[in-house]
Amino acid sequence: MCGRFALRLDPDEIQQLNGHHASVAEWERRNAFVPRYNIAPHSQAPVLRRIDPETDQLVLSTMKWGLVPHFMKFEDKTLNTTNARSENLVDGGGMWESIKGPKRCAVVCQGYYEWLTKGKDKLPHFVKPKDGRLMLMAGLYDSVVLQGETETLWTFTIVTTEANKEFSWLHHRQPVILSTPESLNAWLDTSSKNWTPDLVKLVAPTTCALDCYQVPKEVGKVGTESPTYIEPVANRKDGIQAMFAKQKQASPKKVAQKRALSPAADSDIEEIPAKKLKPTPKKKADTSKSQPSSSKITSFFNKP
Length: 304
Description:
Keywords: Covalent protein-DNA linkage, DNA damage, DNA-binding, Hydrolase, Lyase, Protease. The chain is built from seven helices and 13 strands.
């Protein structure tokens, strides 16, 4: 699955799509997007699509993550459309049947987050392209004017597939990544408005050059932001490397104990003068109680 991703770049840089040989004519609803390291479902994010199925002209469109089908009258918040399983697209039927042919897009990001389950613990990892390019994930989109509303609601979902052998250790699912110009063009070509056998191949598990590393657990909290979320946790100042660095430094308490045991070894330590203590006065023996008892004993033996 894919439940979180990052896109914290300048909008002008995003629109250039460097390295993808794609020319973007415009960006619809550009001001609705706020670059973030921690983009969660129900957030606004840019997707790439063809503005006209009959032409090759591409546009970026800011849409809400979590697809609301065009046939809905109200937004059903219990319906989980963050992801669309590729198997459901291939098998046909269901809510995706009328969408998968004419309304395909590519979700733009720097990389996505996935959580590795270890016992009761869940460790977040960041997955991104090795070459530093933007990642393009296969998606579907739709638009609808809900009952009682006047504005069109644009929404999208991310298509997921079975994880390939390289990433099956992390999770059993992963997003469909459009890593080549051919795969991107084929996915965005909606001129036929149909689902074709070539698209079935596109959503199958494939291998592409990706980096993957553990990142801070704080990314799991929706609404939080930090540039460290896309950096290896080992590189953080409070991370693994820092932990080992601290272990190499002796604890001040242990150093003090060693110095106390062998003062001769530390000639540089300033001697702390001892406090002068007043001598404790000696207590005089109290004989007042013992005298009466002794007189009684002698008087007993002197009796006639």
